[in-house]
Write a structure and sequence with these properties.
Chain A: This is Spore maturation protein A. Chain A: It comes from Melghiribacillus thermohalophilus. Chain A: Residues 42-151 form the Nucleoside transporter/FeoB GTPase Gate domain. The complex is a heterodimer of chains A (194) and B (177). Chain A is an all-alpha fold. Chain A has one domain (48-193). Chain A has 9 helices and no strands. In chain A, α2 (23-60) crosses α6 and α5 (87-100) runs antiparallel to α6 (104-121). The radius of gyration of chain A is 20 Å and the shape is globular. Chain B has 177 residues and is mostly helical. Chain B folds into 2 domains: 1-50, no CATH class; 66-176, no CATH class. The chains are: A mainly alpha (194), B mainly alpha (177). At the A-B interface, α1, α2, α6, α7 and α8 of A face α1, α2, α3, α5 and α6 of B.
Chain lengths: 194, 177
């Protein structure tokens, strides 16, 4: 599916540009965005090295295990495929915590680490049930404080920049619950087909 | 406002302090462990590069050619039927595809209509309540070499739709009454 989307985005863009005379912009965009991707990767290096280094200490010290033991009952319900006390649980939890506090750049390395642990449980090139649930939760992004949005609102002289915090939390909770329901629905559909 | 800014400036240093002290207490060789974990980060970043580059180039062609705007114009009647105001449709459609594009659209809407207008508040809520599905799938599946995404994309996009509709309903109730 991702192959089709990838081709659709590029191909429809190029074909559209043929009729609308935007080929110059397309040329420019190709090389600028390739550059942007490299720059993004470089800025990711610092974040990945720092947080993975720090989390390795947390893991060795047994902090992640404690964290996952605390939330085990909920996690077991959300991820029935992951055995209790598996290191994946600790990383999943720390990824959620980082997202919750709006620490997007810490959340990504922890999430990747969680994915690696989940892959150890299911070593194939196909997404496992827990991976899909995990990503569904991540795409609906449970955030308590949307810092970027608040900053933009302040920049344009909002009377109350933080008044959207409440509505954001409500919307994000609903989309998270929705994501879980949709995820379950597709899971049971998969099971039935097999 | 002040407590929110304070929390966001204190939380990262606090986590670092806590992990370092806890590690020392548990007799973990902290510095060596940090370096060992960090090495993984370098490898990870480089293995992500092709995934990010491929996706970002494709998205930027879509955007720069004007096809994205055409796509938004084509789909907006359908979203308006669902009760989503016309002004907000471009944001709703770009949010799952490109994080930078969505941020640009949000900033533009806030600038145009004012942060305290209904559209400004709705855009703020929508921007903050979902994440860029395509980016998350690219990065997370790319990093662990998953080729078959299964239902992940469908689940992610449907969750986005739920989030968008929820934002509209919640903002209508909270801000217009």
């Amino acid at each position: 599916m991702v192959n089709y989307i990838w081709v659709f985005l590029a191909a429809s863009g190029i074909i559209y540009a043929m009729w609308n005379g935007t080929m110059d912009e397309v040329n420019e965009a190709i090389f600028n965005s390739a550059d942007d991707a490299v720059m993004l990767t470089i800025s990711l290096i610092s974040v990945l090295v720092f947080w993975l280094g720090l989390m390795k200490i947390a893991e060795e010290a047994g902090l992640l295990k404690r964290l996952s033991r605390l939330f085990e009952p909920i996690l077991k319900k959300l991820f029935p495929d992951i055995p209790a006390k598996h290191p994946a649980m600790g990383y999943i939890l720390s990824n959620f915590t980082a997202n919750l506090f709006g620490l997007g750049n810490a959340a990504t390395p922890l999430g990747i680490k969680a994915m690696q642990e989940m892959k150890k449980l299911n070593p194939s090139d196909e997404a496992s049930r827990s991976m899909i649930t995990f990503l569904a939760l991540n795409t609906s992004s449970v955030t308590l404080i949307p810092t970027t949005v608040i900053a933009i609102r302040m920049q344009y002289d909002s009377v109350s920049p933080t008044e959207i915090v409440g509505t954001t939390i409500m919307a994000t909770s609903i989309s998270t619950i929705g994501a879980l329901l949709v995820d379950r629905f597709f899971y049971f559909r998969r099971v039935r087909r097999k | 406002m002040s407590w929110i800014t304070m929390i966001s400036t204190w939380i990262i240093p606090f986590i670092i302090l806590f992990v370092l002290l806890f590690g020392t207490w548990k007799k973990v060789p902290t510095y060596e462990t940090f370096v060992e974990g960090g090495k993984e980060g370098v490898k990870m970043a480089f293995s992500l590069l092709p995934f990010l580059l491929g996706m970002m180039v494709s998205i930027s062609i879509f955007r720069a050619s004007g096809a994205m705007d055409a796509f938004v114009a084509l789909l907006s009647p359908f979203l308006q039927i669902l009760g989503i105001p016309g002004e907000i449709v471009p944001l709703a459609l770009t949010r799952p595809i490109s994080g930078t594009a969505a941020l640009a659209v949000t900033t533009d809407l806030i600038k145009e209509f004012g942060p305290d207008s209904f559209i400004g508040r709705l855009a703020s809520t929508m921007q903050g309540s979902t994440d860029t599905t395509l980016y998350i799938l690219t990065v997370y599946f790319g990093a662990v070499g998953i080729k078959k995404m299964g239902d992940a994309l469908k689940v992610g996009l449907m969750a986005d739709l739920i989030g968008i509709i929820a934002s509209v309903i919640i903002c209508t109730y909270v801000f217009s009454l």
